Amino acid sequence: MSHPLLHLRRITRRDAPRLAVLLGQLGYPAEDSAVNERLDYWLNDPTSALIGADMGGELAGVAALHVSPLLEVTGKWARLVALVVDEQHRGKSIGRCLVEAAESRARELGCLRMEVTSSRKRERAHRLYRQHGYEDVCERSARFMKLLR
């Protein structure tokens, strides 16, 4: 069950400093100015959503969702690009609420499936994803990456 002070809402520019802290906790340190630059393209993208978990007036977590169309079948797929809950607020079902909100938004946008990638060291996050029915498919599907810059 979620905490009574928890309120899910859209991320705004005012959240940039707190979002920078959360990204640092996720392992991606960023200055406020860099987060503001990223918000330039996130906030106006109709195929993306930034869902904030507000805990008593403080941004305690965020889920970043992006939607892409599928070609091989009719429909779209969603990717949970980032999910982080502040270290001081973990264990309060905030992550669960953010995942459920992201899934709900993905369904609203016509998505057939959702994926999330997560570092092998994030075992606690993996438990959360499995509890929500996500399956680790790395044994049957390769993931290739290339830096373009």
Describe the model.
- The protein is of the alpha+beta class.
- It has one domain (6-131): Aminopeptidase, CATH 3.40.630.30.
- Helix content is 31%, strand content 28%.
- It has a 5-stranded mixed beta sheet.
- It starts with 5 loop residues before the first strand and ends in an 18-residue tail after the last helix.
- The model has no long low-confidence stretch (mean pLDDT 89).
> CATH homologous superfamily, by name?
Gcn5-related N-acetyltransferase (GNAT)
Instruction: Give the fraction of residues assigned to helices.
Output: 25-40%
Q: What is the H/E order? A: EHHEEEHEH
Please tell me how large the radius of gyration is.
15 Å
* Average pLDDT over all residues: 89
Distance between the termini: 44 Å
**Structural class, from secondary structure content?**
alpha+beta
Q: Write down the CATH class.
A: Alpha Beta
Q: What coarse outline follows from CA principal-axis ratios?
A: globular
Brief description of this entry?
The chain has 149 residues and is α+β, with helices and mostly antiparallel strands. Helices cover 31% and strands 28% of the residues. It has a 5-stranded mixed beta sheet with strand order 1-2-3-4-5.
Question: Which helices and strands appear, and what pairs or packs with what?
Answer:
Blueprint: E1 6-10, H1 16-26, H2 32-42, E2 48-55, E3 58-69, E4 76-85, H3 94-108, E5 111-116, H4 123-131
Parallel strand pairs: 4-5
Antiparallel strand pairs: 1-2, 2-3, 3-4
List descriptors:
149 residues; alpha+beta; Aminopeptidase; 5-stranded mixed β-sheet; 31% helix
